[in-house]
Structures are given as structure tokens and as C-alpha cells.
Amino acid sequence: MSTYTPQNYDFSDKDAGYAQLARTLEALLHGEHDAVANAANASALIFDALPELNWAGFYFLKDGELVVGPFQGKPACVRIPLGKGVCGTAAAQRTTLVVPDVHAFPGHIACDSASASEIVVPLLDGAELIGVLDLDSPRPARFDEQDRRGLERLAQIYVASLRPAASGHRG
Ligand code: SME
User: How far is the CA of 29 from the centre of ligand 1 (A)?
Assistant: First the structure.
């Protein structure tokens, strides 16, 4: 990994903010392929950079259910069956879910009572589901289409970092 230089992220232009964040994440993960290490740094970066979050982190698919991985925020539920909650539904459908009001989502799993809205991005390595990236916000309708695009790009960068061929020599 390269040395991380803290930056001031400006999400008043969301697409520009996500482009900057994508470049920073690529540099941060460069040369490292460990799934836990890269998820830890990715969640720390996302939580530091994006405004109005109360949780940001990873769930990994293990033996047919989602198991919590590295994250920032309050302690979270450990295991989520596929098809349950926002995370399990996004994983089962292999599609990003943007939930403007978590209380209106059937089966939402409340880990932090402060959460009002949520976005869950599946982590797909080709056709293989390896987990999800989950972000919660205390502000209702915090996430929109620009967040979806930006976070799907960050999820791709994370998945690509796990392949030794994709990011060069281990260093
Ligand atoms: N709210 C999620 C559970 C995970 S926490 O938000 C960290 C869900 O309904 O799947």
C-alpha cells in the first residue's frame, strides 16, 4: 500500500468527489491483495471521506450467509442470511439497493438505531458473489444515483485489488 495522505473531499459535486475518492482508493490498495486488509482500509477511507455516514463496511459471503467484515461505526450484527435485510436482499439479487427509508424496508435489520437510509452494493468478481459493501446514514434519503454509481466503482476497485494480476507486483 502507498502512504495515505489525508485529503479534503468535496462532495458538493458528487461525481467529482467520487472520482477523487476512486483515485485515492486505487492508490491506497495498490500492491496489496489481502481481502481483510484492503476492506479495512477501504471502509476507513469511505467513512472518513463521505459526509453523513454512521456506518460503512463489508460483509463477506461465507458458507451461504453474510458474515461481517471490516467496518467503521457501531458494532453490527454478525451474520445475515441471504435474502434477509437490505444486505441479504442486495446479495441475493446481486444488485445495488438504495433504501431512502430503512424503516419502510420489509425485514430491515437495525444494527444502529441512528440509521435512517442505506445503500448496499454487491461485491461481484465476475459472476461470483463475494460479499457486499454497506453504508448507513442518519439522514433519510442520503443516497442517490450518483452515490450508487460512485460506490459501485469503489466496490469494483476493491474486488480488483484482490487479484494479484490486476494491481501489479506485491509490495
Ligand atoms: N441494515 C442492514 C444490516 C447491517 S447494518 O446496517 C450494519 C440490513 O438490513 O441488512
Answer: 25
